[in-house]
Amino acid sequence: LHALDIRDLSAVEPPSTSQSFQSDEKCPFDFLRTVMGCAARAMAHCHANDVRHLDIKPSNILLRPDRVYLADFGISRDVSGQDQTTTDGLPGTEKWRAPELYSSHGSSMQLSDMYSLGLVYMNIATVLYNVRLAEFDDALKYSSAASREDQLRIREDKIRKHLDKLTAHALVTPPFMFTYEGQETVRPRPVVKLISHMVATDPRKR
User: Fold this and answer.
1) Phi-psi region of 54 (alpha: psi -120 to 50; beta: other; left: phi over 0)
2) What does residue 197 show for φ and ψ, rounded to 5 degrees?
3) Are the C-beta atoms of 112 and 101 separated by less than 8 Å?
4) Which ranges constitute the DSSP H helices of the chain?
5) Residue 190 — pLDDT band, cuts 50, 70, 90?
6) What is the C-alpha to C-alpha distance for residues 103 and 89, in angstroms, rounded to an integer?
7) What distance in Å separates the CA atoms of residue 192 and residue 195, rounded to the nearest whole number?
8) Taken in order 42, 193, 138, 136, is the CA torsion positive or negative?
9) pLDDT digits (tens, 9 = 90+) for 150-163
10) Phi then psi for 185, rounded to 5 degrees?
11) Do the beta carbons of residue 174 and residue 190 sit within 8 Å?
12) Nearest to 115 by CA among 205, 200, 204
C-alpha cells in the first residue's frame, strides 16, 4: 500500500470511534475502483488496435500510484488484416479462461478477453463489498471429478451465486459508492450487473 501511495487505511484497519470516510488521502477501495476503469481502457485500446490479449488476469495488471498497466502480451494475437478473429485451443490461464474456449467450434478472442476482465472485476468487487476472497476462489474452481461439460456448468452456477452474494453485500456498503461531478455513476447494483454481463456464459450476451 505504501508503494502505491495509499495512506488512508481507515477502511481496512480495525474501526475506531474517530474513523471517517472523508479523508483527503487515497484509500485502497478508491484505488481498486480506479483500477476497474483503467483496465477497461487498456483492453479497449488493445481491441481498437486489433490486438487480443488472451491472458487477462490480476497478475498481468501492474500497478503504480498514478498508472495501471496491462502486461504480458506473450500469447496475445494481432488480428489486423485477418478474416479470422476466433481462436481454437486453450490460450491463457484456466482460472480466468472463458468457458467457450473449451468448445471445438472456436470462439471470439475479443469476447473471451471481456469474460476474463469480468472475472477480474468480480475479484475486485469481492474486496470492495467485503466478501471473503476464499469464496471467490471457490467459485472459480473446477470440480476434478466431473466431466468437462459438468465442470463448466457447476462453475457457472457458482459464479452466479457469488454474484448474488455480491449484490446483497453491495447494498449495505454505502461509503464506497462512486461519484463523478456529483452524480452517482457506479452504484453497487449496476457494478454487479455489469460483471454479470461480462461473464455471461453465452458470449453474444456480453
Assistant:
1) left
2) -70, -40
3) yes
4) 28-48, 109-128, 133-140, 148-170, 188-198
5) confident
6) 8
7) 5
8) positive
9) 999 999 999 999 99
10) -110, -25
11) no
12) 200
Over residues 127-132, mean pLDDT? 89
Which residues neighbour 89 within 8 Å (Cβ) at sequence distance 6 or greater? 101
Rounded distance, CA 182 to CA 185, Å? 9
Paired strand residues for 78: 51
Percent of residues, the chain, with pLDDT higher than 70 = 79
Any idea which residue has 472463458 for its cell?
98
For the entire predicted model, the pTM comes to 0.81
- Taking the C-alpha atoms of residue 29 and residue 27, their distance in angstroms, rounded to an integer, is 6
Taking CA atoms, 176 is separated from 23, 32, 186, in Å, by 13, 11, 9
Query: Looking at 40-44, 68-72, 80-84, which range is the least confident one?
Result: 80-84
Rounded-to-integer distance, Cα 166 and Cα 163, Å? 5
The Cα–Cα gap between 25 and 21 comes to 10
Enter the DSSP assignment of 118.
H
